[in-house]
Amino acid sequence: MLLAASAAGEVAAGLVFGALPWRRPHARLVLVAPAGSATAVGLTAWAADGFAPLFAALFLVGVCAGPAAIASSALLDTLVPRPALARAYTLMVAVGLLWGAAGNAAGGVVAEQFGHRAALALSACWLAVLLAGAVVFRRALGAGPAGQGSGRRAANRVRP
Fold first, then answer.
1. Sign of torsion, CA 82 84 86 92?
2. 117-124, long-range: CB < 8 A, 24+ apart
3. 131: closest CA among 18, 31, 29, 46?
4. What does the alpha-carbon distance between residue 151 and residue 153 come to, in Å, rounded to a whole number?
5. What pLDDT, on the 0 to 100 scale, is given for residue 68?
6. Nearest 5°: phi and psi at 4?
7. Contacts of residue 51, Cβ cutoff 8 Å, sequence gap at least 6
8. 34-to-42, 130, 160 alpha-carbon distances in Å
9. Which among 58, 150, 71 has a CA at the least distance from the CA of 158?
10. What single string gives the DSSP state of each residue in 100-121?
11. Please, are residues 6 and 64 in contact by the beta-carbon 8 Å criterion?
12. Could you tell me if 128 and 37 are in contact, meaning their C-beta atoms sit under 8 angstroms apart?
C-alpha cells in the first residue's frame, strides 16, 4: 500500500505536469525536484510511525518524482544531439536503476542498524547533498540565467 501511494503520486503528478505547458526551463525543474524530494522524504521520516501520515508523505514523494523524470527526459532532448539520444536515454535509465539499487541496499543496511527513521532522514540529507552538487555543477558549467546549457542547437552548429 505504501509503495502504491508513492507510485500513485508519481503517476498523478506526471500526468498533470505532462499535460500543462511548462514556461520555465526544464533544467530549473531538475534542480527544484531534489529540493522537493528532500523535503518530502524528510516529512516521510517524521511521519514514519503512523500509516495515514506515512501514506500522505509517500504520495508527496511520488508527486516530486513524476515531474522530475519528465524534466530529465525533456532536458536530454535539448542537450544531446539527435543521433545520440537513444544512448543518452539508455544511459540515464541504467544509471538511475543502478543508483536506485545501491540506495535501496544502503538504506536497508542503515534501517537495519539504526531504524527506518534514520534511513529516511539520511535519504533526505543525501538528496540535499545531490541538490547542492547539482547547483555547483551547473554554475561550474556556466549555465546562463535561464538555466539552459549549450543545447542541441549549439551542438548542431558545430556539425555540418
1. negative
2. 117/45, 117/48, 120/41, 120/42, 120/44, 120/45, 120/48, 121/42, 121/45, 123/41, 123/45, 124/38, 124/39, 124/41, 124/42, 124/44, 124/45
3. 31
4. 5
5. 82
6. -65, -35
7. none
8. 12, 7, 38
9. 150
10. HHHHHHHHHHHHHHH-HHHHHH
11. no
12. no
Taking the model in full, what pTM does it have?
0.72
C-alpha cell at 38: 528532500
Residue 69: closest CA among 123, 97, 15, 30: 30
CA atoms within 13 Å, Cβ hemisphere of 61: 23
Give the CA distances from residue 20 to residues 24, 54, 70, 112, in Å, rounded to whole numbers and listed in that order: 12, 28, 12, 42
Residue 151, pLDDT score: 44
* SS3 category, 1: coil
Distance of CA 90 to the CA centre of its chain: 16
Nearest to 11 by CA among 52, 69, 53: 69
- Region 114-120 average pLDDT: 90
- Which one-letter amino acid corresponds to residue 104? N
Per-position DSSP letters for 23-46, written without gaps between them: -S-HHHHHHHHHHHHHHHHHHHHH
